[in-house]
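Researcher: Let's continue the batch. This sequence belongs to Archease, and it's 140 residues. Same format as the previous ones, please.
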Amino acid sequence: MESGTHQFEPHVSEVQLRISGTGLPELFEEAGYALAELMLGEAPLPQPSPESAMERVALVAPDTEALLVDWLNELIARSDLTKRVYTDLVVDELQERSLRAHIRGVSPPVLKTAVKAATFHGLELNEHDDGFTATVVLDV
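Model: Same format as before. Here are the structure tokens for Archease:
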């Protein structure tokens, strides 16, 4: 889990995430960890119990940037539906326009931050010599 970094930047009723990863799968996983940390307000993230149900995620989007937003919005929607925060995230397959992953979550008594959605506002995804970086704005 040490293959990427993230930081939070306040933004009026929004939070801007800056995420990095050594590869795209790591960047997507790190984005999910950043979302969970924001929602829970704690790091390190609590891990689900071994008997916690694993859920599968399969997404298709027009491009990789949209896929990143869809990934975060899928995690947000599932959190709203199941009352879980997903802290165990594994991207099994990532292509330019599709993603397959499996996730497991914890059921916190309360959320520190309720995240409404990931947006396309200010969205950036860049490749560098040492990996990838992304900027995503979340409505909170």
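Researcher: Any comment?
Model: The beta strands are 4-11, 14-21, 55-60, 85-95, 98-106, 117-118, 124-128, 131-139.
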